[in-house]
Specification:
single chain; Rossmann fold; 10 helices; alpha/beta; binds magnesium ion; 216 residues
Length: 216
């Protein structure tokens, strides 16, 4: 008998077409300053954890102001809500894994009536206009997404992972079925490292591949 499937997905750039953290940081410190920090992270001069903290040290919005800006955007892949309904009808567990803020993700999912999804991510601790971060774990990445996949595999699941960026690489290496967003950095990495993946643009394509697998 085929093992039961469990699906994990990155949020920013995979489910969401915008990056929720970048949107807020760019509004507060500007895109140039934000990208200068991103460049240090990519060059290995700063860990993601340090860079993310440095970016949010420049954010002085209230929580309501930040969420208002996020919800102004219509940033979700339109194929994602039907994808969620398919997983629920088929009894396939689905978890969002993110190095962004859990509360930002829930704020984006709420208008789509998807706020009930399981989300594992960092958390923002906002007091007035002061932002602190409760990181998901102690790793330099702030959230090692591969830990969730390894746990599910040890429970006997076949795991699918959907991602787009460099923070998705550890999870990509563990997934049984991998989806990497077309033209983005995870796909580039997999091409270079010889890791097999399905290229995707939206969740209709992810669903089609997974449905074929489930029918076998
Ligand atoms: Mg991403």
């Amino acid at each position: 008998m085929t093992k039961a499937l469990k699906i994990f997905s990155d949020f920013d750039g995979a489910i969401s077409l915008i990056d929720t953290g970048d949107l807020i940081v760019d509004h507060c410190i500007g895109r140039v300053a934000r990208r200068a920090i991103d460049d240090k992270i990519v060059a290995g001069k700063m860990s993601f954890r340090e860079g993310f903290a440095a970016q949010f040290a420049g954010v002085h919005l209230t929580w309501d102001e930040a969420v208002g800006r996020l919800q102004l955007q219509d940033g979700l892949d339109a194929a994602f809500p039907p994808f969620v309904r398919w997983t629920e009808a088929a009894n396939i567990p689905l978890v969002a894994l993110s190095s962004g803020f859990e509360q930002f993700i829930r704020a984006c999912l709420t208008p789509m009536r998807l706020a009930h999804l399981e989300i594992r991510a960092n958390r923002a601790l906002v007091q007035g206009r002061n932002w602190q971060i409760a990181f998901r774990d102690d790793t330099p990445s702030s959230h090692d997404k591969s830990a969730a996949l390894r746990e599910a595999r040890s429970q006997g699941y076949r795991v699918a992972f959907i991602g787009d960026g460099i923070s998705d690489i550890p999870a990509a290496r563990v997934a049984d079925i991998l989806f990497a967003k077309k033209g983005e950095r995870l796909a580039e990495y997999c091409d270079q490292a010889g890791i097999a993946y399905h290229s995707f643009v939206n969740f209709d394509e992810v669903k089609m591949v997974l449905q074929q697998g489930e029918a076998k």
